[in-house]
């Protein structure tokens, strides 16, 4: 699938905002620690991806009722659903000057992904939700290896748009949910 940028140029895919708060001291510190062991952009991107995927449990998998949204809050609480984990990954990538954005899969409810663009390469989507039995996502630049493959017969599909900011419907759900159980009931089903 060919991914399409929502906005021309890459500056919007490097910007900080209230959710992708890559100038927050915790995001900066985490990015710096990851950069110390992986200086090349590709190695840093892989390290940031694996850090979010493997050290920040998906709150549903962990039974954690807390709901996080801002990248810095995800890093501090060490929990989040797919949207929040994508916020953290995008912030870590942007903190080191790697253009990154947000993509979604329609799987009955929206599933959040991150996308990045390394020098000389096209956009590639990554799924930082976290692996578990039956769910295996990997950092690959030759082809995507996401956690889920949409089933067109069930009306599921991939949205090809790379957004510069998280979709407002996902932000609204994260911001209004009293806890993860409540969030599970209000997850958006469409963009």
From TrEMBL:
Record-annotated Transglutaminase-like domain positions: 74-130
Pfam families: Transglut_core
InterPro entries xref list: Papain-like_cys_pep_sf, Transglutaminase-like
PANTHER family: BLR5614 PROTEIN-RELATED, CONSERVED INTEGRAL MEMBRANE PROTEIN
Name the UniProt record assigns to this protein: Transglutaminase domain-containing protein
Protein species of origin: Streptomyces synnematoformans
């Amino acid at each position: 699938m060919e991914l399409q940028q929502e906005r021309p140029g890459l500056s919007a895919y490097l910007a900080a905002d209230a959710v992708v708060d890559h100038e927050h001291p915790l995001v900066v510190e985490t990015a710096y620690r990851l950069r110390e062991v992986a200086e090349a952009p590709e190695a840093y991107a892989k390290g940031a991806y694996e850090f979010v995927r493997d050290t920040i449990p998906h709150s549903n998998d962990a039974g954690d009722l807390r709901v996080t949204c801002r990248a810095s809050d995800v890093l501090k609480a060490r929990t989040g659903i797919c949207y929040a984990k994508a916020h953290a990954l995008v912030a870590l990538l942007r903190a080191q000057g790697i253009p990154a954005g947000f993509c979604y899969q329609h799987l009955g409810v929206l599933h959040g992904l991150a996308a990045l663009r390394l020098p000389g390469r096209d956009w590639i989507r990554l799924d930082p939700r976290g692996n578990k039995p039956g769910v295996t996502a990997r950092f690959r630049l030759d082809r995507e290896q996401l956690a889920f493959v949409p089933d067109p017969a069930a009306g599921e599909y991939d949205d090809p748009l790379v957004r510069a900011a998280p979709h407002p419907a996902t932000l609204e759900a994260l911001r209004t949910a009293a806890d993860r159980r409540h969030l599970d009931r209000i997850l958006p089903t469409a963009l």
